[in-house]
């Protein structure tokens, strides 16, 4: 593990703790709770969703946490993709039939907005609700974006919570569209060019 500025690269020994931090951080997220409104279903599905969306960050040493895993960010390096087959399986098994079509459109929109040039992708960043407002998200973001800037590579994410858009904008991300279908909450794709 490498530690710098209070940020640690998560290894296998803290993987489960890192995942649970993200589960807690997304517990009131509009898109996640639209997907899984029942608390038990959310808890059961979200761990698998995190693994499919950002689990490869652990393999590449780009799963970052702050002290005691109070905040976590899973970054996928250029050329590394989410596990789409696993995402398909999770959606097929866990989504309510009435929202399946809407989710398919959201995922299609996400694919269409993903940059074609090499980029770092942030599928998940979260702070344990007990520690929100302590600057931990900023610490994680600055740490990862420093690497993006050193490499001259853009960063990309989709904000599933409109309340978080100003946070991303403070770190140089700009909205590049909005993805929404039917009764779904909006998803905002955001891009940050390297500085």
TrEMBL record:
InterPro entries named among the record's database cross-references: Acyl_CoA_acyltransferase (IPR016181), GNAT_dom (IPR000182), Trichothecene_AcTrans (IPR052523)
Domain N-acetyltransferase span(s) in chain numbering: 109-195
Any Pfam family hit: Acetyltransf_1
Gene3D superfamilies: 3.40.630.30
CDD domains in alphabetical order: NAT_SF
PANTHER family per record: GNAT FAMILY ACETYLTRANSFERASE, N-ACETYLTRANSFERASE DOMAIN-CONTAINING PROTEIN
Protein name per its UniProtKB record: GNAT family N-acetyltransferase
Species of provenance: Bradyrhizobium barranii
């Amino acid at each position: 593990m490498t530690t710098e500025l209070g940020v640690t690269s998560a290894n296998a020994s803290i993987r489960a703790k890192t995942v649970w931090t993200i589960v807690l951080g997304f517990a009131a997220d509009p898109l996640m709770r639209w997907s899984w409104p029942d608390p038990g279903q959310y808890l059961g599905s979200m761990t698998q969703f995190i693994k499919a969306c950002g689990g490869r960050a652990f393999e590449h040493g780009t799963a970052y946490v702050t002290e005691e895993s109070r905040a976590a960010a899973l970054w996928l390096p250029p050329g590394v993709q989410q596990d789409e087959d696993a995402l398909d399986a999770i959606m097929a098994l866990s989504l309510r039939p009435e929202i399946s079509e809407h989710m398919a459109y959201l995922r299609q929109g996400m694919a269409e907005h993903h940059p074609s040039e090499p980029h770092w992708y942030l599928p998940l960043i979260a702070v344990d609700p007990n520690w929100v407002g302590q600057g931990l998200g900023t610490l994680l973001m600055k740490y990862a974006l420093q690497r993006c800037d050193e490499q001259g590579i853009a960063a990309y994410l989709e904000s599933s919570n409109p309340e978080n858009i100003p946070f991303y904008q403070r770190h140089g991300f700009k909205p590049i569209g909005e993805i929404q279908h039917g009764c779904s909450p909006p998803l905002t794709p955001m891009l940050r060019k390297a500085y």
